[in-house]
């Protein structure tokens, strides 16, 4: 589960972004007993959250930051690119002339029994700083496992070519200070030698995992398999059909999946999964009021049914596999009643998964289904085009007895709406 996530200098976000899934310490959480999970180690973590904002405000960029962060663990590369940093940090073509350093920090609970805090700073040449720490209890202090800091950078480039070209291709090599706690010292030297390389070698934590560090393995596996950022695509069902992953097929054949899928239409009685093209050729069987049976391929069904057929797979992962899903505009084809039903279903189950989604649907702005800490806004400054994320909990004047949150938002009092 995600406790806290921070990042800066990524796409439309320039300053540090802070996102928290920790339940409030006040008694207000007693009104929402299903909205959070009390772990055995003393932590109380929210199951769901909603991020509201205007078009082009930065909601998709928030989810993309997680997708990019995750990609660093899967690809043997760790550096920023000109197209990924905030545009206001770019000056000219030479990366030496502007700020290319992006920062990411995430705090997670893995398997319900161990906390990890991971901090990463990377620029266009590679890693600047990387730190991994862990602890067993929520109130305990973190113990450092891995610490990497770049101490020197040798940078060479053809200045004439750099001026003529729109893309600078420097030759770089760095020197790093490396500290590894509770690990075989014999393996520290090979890892240090790997740093003296002009080519990008990827994250140190992934190398540490390969060398057998239990904590590095657990954390990297959690990032690669349990963190699920789903960025905005035009048709999510089409996107899933193009990927055609084995785990999706396994979930579609699980009897518990049908319980989730039927939330969109309770006349659905059964599905016959097509093993070759599950997201287009699966047969959906419905029962009419007169008792007769009606069936057709999912590909011929309504856009809302097709989309939810794909999204229901992600909801399954949250509830039954303890995945953390960041969904970009999942409810764009769903009516508000179904959206609330999905959230209530997730909250009503005991699990260690999380579901965070972005939306344009202002009907989610209510304090009957959510705590203030579960509602976030993203807005973009009209002058510098930079995005900002903040929580409804930042507005102490908003009380739970207030029924005008929707009006406050539409009037621009809470931000997150487009302005001229």
General description of the model:
The protein is α+β, with helices and mostly antiparallel strands and 420 residues long. It folds into 2 domains: 1-226 and 322-420, Rossmann fold, CATH 3.40.50; 235-321, no CATH class. The protein has 12 helices and 18 strands. The protein has a 7-stranded antiparallel beta sheet with strand order 2-1-6-7-8-9-10. Strands 11-15-16-5-17-18 form a 6-stranded mixed beta sheet, sandwiched between helices. A hairpin with a 7-residue loop joins strand 8 and strand 9. The mean pLDDT is 86.
Low confidence ranges: none
How many β-strand stretches? 18
Annotated CATH topology of the largest domain = Rossmann fold
* Biggest sheet record: 7 strands, antiparallel
**Ends apart, CA distance between termini:** 39 Å
Helix content: 25-40%
The CATH architecture classification of the largest domain is 3-Layer(aba) Sandwich
Query: What is the succession of H and E elements?
Result: EEEEEHEEEEHEHHHEHHHEHEEHEHEEEH
The tally of structural domains comes to 2
> Strand order, biggest sheet?
2-1-6-7-8-9-10
Shape, per Cα inertia axes: globular
Class of the largest domain in CATH? Alpha Beta
Share in β-strands: 25-35%
- What is the SS-derived class? alpha+beta
- How many separate helices? 12
Radius of gyration: 23 Å
- Overall mean confidence score, pLDDT: 86
């Amino acid at each position: 589960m995600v406790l806290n996530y921070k990042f800066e200098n990524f796409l439309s976000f320039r300053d540090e972004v802070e996102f928290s899934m920790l339940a409030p310490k006040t008694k207000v959480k007693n009104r929402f007993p299903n909205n959070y999970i009390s772990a055995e180690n003393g932590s109380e973590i929210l199951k769901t959250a909603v991020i509201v904002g205007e078009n082009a405000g930065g909601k998709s960029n928030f989810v993309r930051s997680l997708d990019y962060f995750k990609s660093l663990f899967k690809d043997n590369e760790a550096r920023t690119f000109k197209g990924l940093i905030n545009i206001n940090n770019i000056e000219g073509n030479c990366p030496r002339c502007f700020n290319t350093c992006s920062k990411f920090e995430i705090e997670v609970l893995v398997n319900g029994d161990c906390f990890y805090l991971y901090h990463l700073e990377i620029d266009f040449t590679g890693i600047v700083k990387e730190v991994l720490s862990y602890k067993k209890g929520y109130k305990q202090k973190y113990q450092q496992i891995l610490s990497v800091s770049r101490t020197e950078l040798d940078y060479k480039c053809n200045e004439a070519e750099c001026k003529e070209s729109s893309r600078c291709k420097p030759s770089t090599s760095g020197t790093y200070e490396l500290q590894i706690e509770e690990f075989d010292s014999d393996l520290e030297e090979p890892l240090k030698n790997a740093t003296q390389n002009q080519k990008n070698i990827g994250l140190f934590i992934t190398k540490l995992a390969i060398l057998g560090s239990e904590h590095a393995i657990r954390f990297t596996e959690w990032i690669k398999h349990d963190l699920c950022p789903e960025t905005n695509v035009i048709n999510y069902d089409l996107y899933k059909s193009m990927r055609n992953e084995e785990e999706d097929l396994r979930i579609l054949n699980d009897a518990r999946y049908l319980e989730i899928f039927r939330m969109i239409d309770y006349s659905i009685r059964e599905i016959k999964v097509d093993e070759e093209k599950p997201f287009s050729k699966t047969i959906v069987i419905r029962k009419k009021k007169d008792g007769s049976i009606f069936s057709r391929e999912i590909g011929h069904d309504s856009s809302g049914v097709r989309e939810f057929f794909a999204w229901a797979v992600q909801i399954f992962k949250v509830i039954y596999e303890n995945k953390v899903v960041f969904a970009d505009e999942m409810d764009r084809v769903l009516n508000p009643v179904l959206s609330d039903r999905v959230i209530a279903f997730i909250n009503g189950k005991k699990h260690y998964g999380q579901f965070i989604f972005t939306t344009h649907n202002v009907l989610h702005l209510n304090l009957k289904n959510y705590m203030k800490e579960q509602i976030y806004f993203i807005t973009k400054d009209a002058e510098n085009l930079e995005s900002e994320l903040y929580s409804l909990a930042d507005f102490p004047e908003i009380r739970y007895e207030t029924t005008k949150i929707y009006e406050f938002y539409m009037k621009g009092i809470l931000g997150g709406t487009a302005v001229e």
